[in-house]
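Researcher: Here's the sequence for the chain we discussed earlier.
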Amino acid sequence: MEAEEMSKLVTQKHIEDVDLSESDIDGFDFSGCEINNVVFASVTQQNKEIRGVNFNAARLTNVSFEGATLINCDFDGFKTNLTKVSFKRCTLLKCRFRNSVISWSDFRYTEVNLATFEGSRIDFCDFYRAFFVGVVIFRKSRISNSSLYYTYFDEGATIRKENLVDGRILQQDKIAYTKFLVDWNTNGTGQRKNEQNRLSDWSPDASLKSRFGDAEDIYKTLNGLWTSKGFLGEANWAYVKGKKMERRRLMAELTDNQWTMNQKFKNLIFIAWNYLCDFMFGYGESMKRMILSYILVVFIFAYLYYASPDISLPSYARAIGISLKNMVALSSAEVENVSPLVDFLNIIQTTFGILVTGIFGFILGNKIRNQ
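Model: Thanks. This is the structure I predict for it:
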């Protein structure tokens, strides 16, 4: 398409059902345009570059930039709406998406460098194997129902916990994830193809089956990212989420026929330990659970002492006092050398008390450090 024809289309503010992949659109101002079913770049093209194009306040629907390098392109604005837009295998250099609304769009295999998504709302987008390198700003952006599986965030990418709507990722929500997988062909950018532009050999059922493992990997990635940046509170939050997803993965594997009985038995042990660490200590991150666990253990052992026929105690309150002393390795005369069973209870409680006290110090130190 010639520049004159292009200018006429831009003036009309409505562009539909055209292939502009062979046209030079560098520097064009598409601000305020309604753009539907338009190809700006094709996967078959080599080294396609698009420079300095303005899409401010434009509405793009079913648009392809696939495989192109976009440099200094502007998708800013509260009125900018991107739906079914393919940035697959693109390089986005110094591009801006501030305050824009992006939905059902494809960022797979995309390299995003020195860009900003500040204030943007991102919903049902796929960032599989996307690379966010250099300084990439996500301040005040809201990411929901979007896949971050195998997404790489460099040191300069400032994604935070607050960017994840409701503190959740897509794979945790079975209904939303099913919609994401099943409806992508119609609501998204069409049939999923891999980096070789061939149909992907995946199925929604297989992805749903592995969703807890995928969520575990995503949270562990965020944990490593935030730890390296010094966002320790958010790193600890991601760590806890990752451990919970690990437990869900292990539980799902119990019904999988590909695992042997021996492996399933090991899984049961790991599940029990995982649940115990969560229930009692919040995986070493919950001060509240730690204190409640401490109190619970004191009362349980106090009851065992009070109910024991080998010990004569005047009241349950006295049993609680003995139990408290045992937690800090101070045995009382009433429970010393009474019977093998009581001696065994003393050893167990004292050992547990020392362990819990150490964990308490660890959690307290973490809380102080994170502040």
